Amino acid sequence: MPLLRTITDIFGPSIWFNAIVGLTHAASAPPDGPNGTPSSYDMFVTQRSHVVQQAIRQAAGDMRLMNPVSLVENHSACRIDTSGQRVLPNGLVWKPHLLLLSFASKVLAEANALLKLQDSPPEKHYTARTRGPPLPYLLSSLLQSRPQLKLPEEQFSDEDSLDDGLDEPSDSGDETDPDDLPPFKPLTKAQIRNLSKAQKKAYLDEIEYREKLFMKKQLKDEKKQRKIMKKMAESLKDLPSDYSENAEEEIGGAASVPVPMPDMSLPASFDSETPTHRYRFLDSSNQWLVRPVLETHGWDHDVGYEGLNVERLFVLKSKLPLSFSGQVTKDKRDANVQMEIASSAKYGEGKATSLGFDMQTVGKDFAYTLRSETKFCNFRRNKATAGLSFTLLGDALSAGVKVEDKLIANKQFEVVIAGGAMTGHDDVAYGGSLEARLRDKNYPLGRSLSTLGLSVMDWHGDLAVGCNLQSQIPIGRYTNLVARGNLNNRGAGQISIRLNNSEQLQIALIGLIPLLKKIVGYSQQLEFGQ
User: Which ranges carry the Translocase of chloroplast 159/132 membrane anchor domain (predicted)?
Assistant: First the structure.
C-alpha cells in the first residue's frame, strides 16, 4: 500500500487508467489451500488478481477501477507450444495476450480523448477527483444516543429522574435491615466440604440472602446521599456568593487530595516483569484531566504510549455546563486529532437542548461536525429527541436529521427507536435502528439481561438490514451463560456462546480439546507421509 500510494501521489490517480497488472512466475504451482488440499490454478489467479486490484482501488480512492491482469512467465522450464511460445498451466499463451491488452488499453485511451470523457480538464489531468462524503458512516454517528451534559451538582441525580420509582428492586417489600439479622459466621472451605448436601444448600442460600439485603441497603443509601447532595447544591444557590463559595470549598475539600488512578490492563508480554509503574498517574485537584492513551496491540518491549487525552468541564454563569475533550495520537506515519466541545441548557420541566462541535481527522482531511439535539418528556415514561447535524469533509458539506423515541414500559423493559436521513453531493442515505432491552425482575441486583437490536440502512438503492441478539442467563450461583448472534440480509451471520464460572475452574480444560485434536491429526498426517 505505501508503494501504491506513492505512485498515486506522484503521478496522480489517472495513472491507473493506463496500468496493466502483471503477475510473474505464472507457471509456478499454486500453494495449498486452508484445509491442506492443493488449490486450483484458476482460483489462485483469481484471488491474487482481486487482492492487487482492490489495493489499487484503495490507493487511488476510486472503487470503479478494474485494472486488467496479465500472467507472465519467462522461466526456461515453462512449457512451449509448437510455435515456440510459452504456455501457462491453464493453456494460455501469455505474450499475445499481453500485447492484446496493451493494444486495447491504447485504443480505449485514444477513444476517451476523442470523445472527451476525461473526469478532469486537461490542465488538471493529475488532480484527484472529489470523493463524496461517507453518508452511511455519518448517519450511523448521528443516530447514536448521547447522554445529556449536566452541571457538577446534577451529577448526583439519577439519569432518568422521571422514573425514580423504577430504580428500586421489585422485591423491595422485604424491608429487613441487615443489621437486625442474627450474627452469622462465615465458614472456611474445609468446613464447607464437611457439610451435608442439605446443610451446604442452606448455608449458601443464607449467604445469598444476606448479600442481596446488603446490596439493597447500599443502593438505598446511595440514592439518599444523591438526594441530599442535590438539595445542598440547590440551597447553595439561594445563599450569598461569598458564603456559597466557602461552603463549596468545604464540601469539595476532601477531593483536593491527589489519589492514584487504577492500573491499566496491559497486554500479555514475554518480559520477566510487568512494567505497570510506567503507566501510573495521579488524579489531582486540577480541573484538567490529562491521561495517556495506551496502545494495547503494540510491539513487545515498547513503551506503549500512543497519545494523550485531555478533558475539562466548565460552568458558564452557574447555569450552563461546557465540556471540552481532545485526543491526539501519533505513530511513525500518521497523526490523528479528535476534539469535542459540548454544552446543554435546560428550560422547563423535562426539556433540554444540547449543542456540540466535533473535529477529527479522516485520512488526510479534517471533518468538522456541528450537531444539536433537543430532548423532551411528552409523557412520564416516554422521551423524545430530535437532532440536526452538519458535517464539512474537505469541500463536501453534508446535512442530516434524526428523530428518536425512548419508551420505558417498566424498570425491566425499555425500547429505543431512532430514524434519520443524511444528504450531501446530491446523494441521500436513510437509516433507522431499534433497540429493546429486558432486564432482570430484581434489577439492578439480578444478573439476567437480554438485548435485541435492529438496524436498517438504504443508500444508492442498496438496502442493508442487520439484526443482533445478546442474552446473559445466570445458571446457578457462580455461572453465567452469554449468547450472542447476528444476521444480515446478505445471509452472513455469527453465533457465539460463552460460559463464565468463578468456581469450577476445571471447565477451562475444555480448551485443550481442539489443541489435542490438532496434534492427533498432525501425527496421523506424518504417519501417512503427507
Answer: 257-520
**Rg for the chain, CA atoms, rounded:** 32
Backbone φ, ψ for residue 304 (5° rounding): 95, -5
Pairing between β-strand 382-393 and β-strand 365-379 as defined by DSSP bridges: antiparallel
Residue pair 48/67 in contact by the 8 Å Cβ criterion: no
Alpha-carbon distance values, 380 to 156, 191, 329, 406, 407 (Å): 21, 53, 44, 11, 10
CA distance 67 to 50: 10
Which residue type is seen at 156?
Answer: F
| Dist. CA 335–CA 249, nearest whole Å | 40
Whether 355 contacts 341, CB under 8 Å? no
What is the Cα–Cα distance from 196 to 187, expressed in whole angstroms?
A: 14
Which pTM does this prediction carry? 0.59
Distance CA(81)–CA(267), nearest Å, equals 58
The predicted model gives 267-284 an average pLDDT of 68
Mean pLDDT in residue range 446-457: 89
Specify whether the CB–CB gap between 454 and 470 falls below 8 A.
no
Alpha helix stretches (DSSP H) within 27-87: 41-60
pLDDT of residue 164: 45
pLDDT at 484 over 50: yes
For residue 260, which of 291, 229, 287 has the smallest C-alpha distance?
Answer: 291
Cβ atoms of 130 and 210 within 8 Å: the answer is no
The least confident of 31-35, 195-199, 386-390, 468-472 is 31-35
Cell of 159: 439519569
**Residue 402 in grid coordinates:** 434524526
Helix (H, G, I), strand (E, B) or coil at 333: coil
| DSSP-assigned letter for residue 32 | B
